[in-house]
Structure formats: C-alpha cells, structure tokens
Design brief:
Blueprint: E1 5-9, H1 11-24, H2 29-44, H3 55-64, E2 74-78, E3 82-86, H4 92-110, E4 112-120, H5 127-131, E5 138-144, E6 166-170, E7 178-182, H6 189-197, E8 207-208, E9 214-215, E10 225-226, H7 232-245, E11 270-278, H8 285-301, H9 316-328, E12 330-333, H10 334-347
Parallel strand pairs: 3-4
Antiparallel strand pairs: 1-12, 2-3, 4-11, 5-6, 5-11, 6-7, 8-9, 8-10
Helix pairs in contact: 1-2
Length: about 350
C-alpha cells in the first residue's frame, strides 16, 4: 500500500486542531493551548513521531481515565537549587513545562538548578524542554524515562529499558542553538511507528528479533528489540538515565514501566528531569554565545572526508526544518491523516 504524503497542514491550523481535540475532552483552555503549542512544535521541528502522531493515543488515555486533563502539579520536596514535582498524572508537556520554569527561576539565584518529576506522562521530544532555558541565556538539559520498554539489557532479551532520551541545548549569537536530542537506542520507537505509517522498511541496525537476527519490517516491531547506540555504551547510558530520571524521582523504571500505548487505563508514573544552567555564573553570556558562533565556524569549515558534502552540527537540521515547515506546512502521511480524520469525526471537531 502506498502511504505517501497526501496533504500539508499549516502550523497554526495544526495547533488549532490539537487544542480543539483537548477542549472537547474537558481540558482547561490554558492547558489545551500549551499542549497544542508543544505538540505542534514537535512536528514543526521534524520530530514526526512525537507530535500530532501521538494525539489519538493521548485522547484515548484521557477518555479511559489514564491521564488527567487538569493535573494538580505540586512540589513534593524543595531545596535552594533543586525540586521534585508530583505531576498529578498530567500530560508530560504540562509537567515538564512547569519543571523547566521552576529550574530557570532557581538558576537565576543559584547558577544551576535540577528539577525532577514523577507521576507524569509522555512529554514528546526531549528538545522541547532543553530549549526552554535558552530564552533566559541559560543552557538546558533534559532526560526522561521512555514510555514503554523496547530494549533489553546488553546481551539479554527481557524488555527492561526504554529509549531514555537526553537533550542538551546551548545558545549561540547568530547561528542556530546547538541542540543535541538523542535516544539511547539507535532509533526512537516513534521512528519505527512512522516508518510503518509510511510503508517503509527499517534500516538494519535499528532492531533485532529475539534470535539476534536483523528485523527490518516495522509491522513486526512488537516482536523485536531496539538496539542501543554504541552497543554496551548505549545500554549503560539508558540504565543511568533511568536511575536518575526514574528511580531517583520515585518514578517507574525497569519492570515497573507501563506501556503507554498498550494500557490506556493504567497510570504510567513517568519520570523526567530538567537542568537549567545560567551562563552568567561562568561567563559573560554575549561573549560565550559569540564563542559558540566561532565553534560553529570551525566545525563547518573543517576538512571533510571524501564524499562528505557538508559537516553539520546538532540543532542545524532542527532550525532549518522549523523554518521550512512554519513557512510551507507540515507533511502528514496518508495513514496518519486518516486516523486524525477519524478522531476528528469521533470528537465532533473540524478536520484539518
């Protein structure tokens, strides 16, 4: 079947569509607007597996009682440079937006602040929260426990680990911010799902089956194992991130992680943390950002291997994709478009 792109949706129209869906589910308007803003930002930034793609599952969880539309996000414990939030079983976007705001507030005084969260949910792509401190001339770092286990410990077959992503965002002056956003697996599971939507096969190296053989059919992903980046090194990172974002916060990790997609009624107790670092605690922000620009120039102009057309920096593609999609719209595969049309009909809202 050809699952090609059948339409392009303007970013503003996508935001309106997402907000309308949440409003029908009795989400307060401010929360619906924030969800729409952040989910659309995922699509605009090219993270197609983490934006409107997730809307049907979010709505399903809300309707089943597995996620709150108006969470009571509260401080469980707090010190001068740290805090732990209880997410009230709300959408991760709302919980981690609050966490980032609190981290930035604390970092203005302390230079650096770490805010963790528990009893949260899937929050979309990691870069959303790492980028938030940039507006305050701060560096942002975000880590989360993934919303379903798709990776075993190195050498094993039991699914006890997730993609457990990390993002770090560093501001510059005239160049795009340096933004690293990566899973600890070779591919995020959202990419597996979008490959299935597009009728594509997966490259070898993304997944293996339980006999250790390459798995390239995304329709069989439920029987497969995601592979870690760098072999045992990626496994080690996933484990450490899970301990810091999950166990340390009193959130789920290991066998306690609830499959976000398979069980819409169960609460996930997803854990995350965000760190904000005030550049002014170490250097003059303008000088530092100009130095980052200089590093950009060094990297871009460095000698290249034969056949390499361009050296790119983390965040360069994000900035270019954001500009292009804000101007020209967001591509929506046929299968996803059909699911969203069906969702709109079920909720009684306009299709986009």
């Amino acid at each position: 079947m050809n699952n090609g792109v059948t339409r392009k949706v303007e970013a503003d129209r996508l935001r309106h569509f997402i907000a309308s869906a949440f409003l029908v589910c009795h989400m307060p308007p401010d929360n619906a607007a924030k969800m729409a803003e952040l989910m659309a930002a995922a699509d605009v930034g090219g993270q197609d597996g983490h934006g409107v793609f997730r809307l049907p599952q979010y709505i399903k969880r809300i309707q089943a009682g597995g996620m709150s539309v108006d969470p009571d996000i509260s401080v469980v414990s707090e010190r001068t440079a740290t805090a732990l939030l209880h997410g009230g079983n709300g959408p991760g976007h709302l919980v981690m937006s609050r966490a980032a705001e609190l981290a930035m507030e604390k970092a203005k005084t302390c230079g650096v602040a770490w805010v963790g969260a528990r009893h949260s949910n899937h929050a979309g792509p990691a870069f959303l929260y790492a980028q938030m401190p940039l507006k305050q001339d701060m560096i942002g770092l975000y880590v989360a426990v993934g919303s379903a286990n798709h990776m075993p410990p190195w050498g094993g077959t039991d699914l006890l680990l997730s993609t457990n992503p990390i993002s770090v965002a560093i501001p510059s002056n005239t160049q795009p911010a340096v933004v690293l956003d990566m899973a600890t697996t070779v591919a995020a599971y959202g990419k597996v799902k979008t490959a299935a939507d597009r009728g594509e096969t997966m490259p070898e190296g993304w997944m293996i089956d339980k006999l250790g053989q390459p798995l390239t059919d995304p329709a069989r992903a439920g029987d497969g194992l995601l592979l870690p980046i760098g072999g045992p090194k990626g496994y080690g990172l996933s484990l450490i991130f899970g301990l810091l974002a999950g166990t340390l916060n009193g959130a789920a990790f290991g066998k306690d992680v609830v499959d976000f997609n398979a069980d819409p009624k169960a609460t996930t107790n997803t854990g995350h943390f965000v760190i904000a670092l005030d550049i002014a605690a170490f250097a003059d922000p303008k000088t530092f950002k100009s130095q980052v620009d200089g590093i950009w120039g060094e990297m871009k102009s460095s000698d290249r291997l034969p056949g390499v057309a361009e050296i790119r920096l983390p965040g360069e593609r994000l900035a270019a994709t954001t500009a292009e999609r804000e101007a020209n719209g967001i591509p929506v595969p046929e299968a996803l478009g059909n699911r969203l049309d069906a969702l709109a009909d079920d909720l009684g809202i306009d299709r986009f």
